């Protein structure tokens, strides 16, 4: 993000800025995938979760985030 900010401040070319935006987007998408995976493992698929209510809460949280992300 800092490199993108510096490029904007330095008025770099559109192609370079678009390339950096694509790189940031890729990094954010990768981070999102990792956090979603960990959420599913911890709050939905963990065999230690014995409460259906807790499992359902984890699933509902996941659904809410996915709906926001997909928009």
UniProtKB/TrEMBL annotation:
One GO MF term: metal ion binding
UniProt cross-references to InterPro entries, sorted A to Z: Metal_Tscrpt_repr, Metal_Tscrpt_repr_sf
Source species, domain of life: Bacteria
Coiled-coil segments on the chain, per record: none
CDD domains from the UniProt entry: RcnR-FrmR-like_DUF156
One of the GO biological process terms: negative regulation of DNA-templated transcription
Family per similarity comment: Belongs to the FrmR/RcnR family.
Protein name: Transcriptional regulator
Native species: Thauera terpenica 58Eu
């Amino acid at each position: 993000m800092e490199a993108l900010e510096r490029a904007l401040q330095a008025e770099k070319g559109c192609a370079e800025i678009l390339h950096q935006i694509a790189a940031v987007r890729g990094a954010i998408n990768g981070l999102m995938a990792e956090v979603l995976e960990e959420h599913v493992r911890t709050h939905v698929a963990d065999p230690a979760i014995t409460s259906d209510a807790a499992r359902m809460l984890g699933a509902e949280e996941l659904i809410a985030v996915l709906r926001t992300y997909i928009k």
